Amino acid sequence: MDDHNLHKKFIPVTSVTSGDNMAVSSDIFCLPIQIVNVCFIGSPGTNNGWVLVDAGMPRSADEIIGTAREIYGENVPPKAIILTHGHFDHVGAIVELVEQWQVPVYAHELEIPYLTGLKDYPEPDSTVEGGMVAKMSKMFPNEGIDLGRHIRTLPADGSIPVLSGWKWIHTPGHTEGHISLFRDSDRALIAGDAFVTVKQESLYKVITQDKEISGPPRYLTPDWNAAKQSVEKLAELGPAMAVTGHGMPMSGQELTVNLQRLAAEFDTIAKPDYGKFVD
User: Fold this and answer.
1) CB within 10 Å: which end of the chain, N or C, has fewer?
2) Hey, what domains does the chain have and what are their CATH numbers?
3) Closest C-alpha among 257, 266, 265 to residue 194
4) Are 1 and 9 in contact (CB under 8 A)?
């Protein structure tokens, strides 16, 4: 599929709903699945291969596999899956995907216990300041999963074995081993939930996808000091485009202004006034 036809098939990033596919750049594609995004990194029609970042909601494996076929063709599995972290909405289809593709899964060493069945995440905080999604969060699963032989620890030097030109950055706060991905050549950022571009606690804003830069989802963020430092670290990189775990991709001046403001005013914009992880 050539670039012209590819960008005709994948809709622009200004209007999107769950199941729509977004061409963020010539080799970055974003698939929203209900409340969360997964990313495909790799140029179609080349022999360089591709990588999946995060694994969406439960029961979304067929949608992810189908989208991969649309982008890269039949029988072209990824070289690997990279996890920004292991919360349920980022690993929902991971077991089915590794069974289908038989590929390694990479994550930060501090995230490994949650991906090998050794630890569970803290229970979500349904009392935190926010909206209806925050109140509903008590129903969200917090158990770890066991990926067994498929899981790999990312190299300590920040490199990503299967993704040339990219580096991983430790951005804890939302989870202990949360990472973001950054490419120096075009300053592309895959932020995971280090920050997001929708007010994830508000059901109305999640449904309407009103673009609004925000900190990590409040109901599942136990360390707000680390979360603030992570946002400051990402702002210092000066990304030109960003795909976040929730919300619409953001780029250019809109991203620069909003991310700098989030870093400078994190305690006002992102940190909740009350909640068990704040108190």
Assistant:
1) C
2) 3-269 (3.60.15.10)
3) 266
4) yes
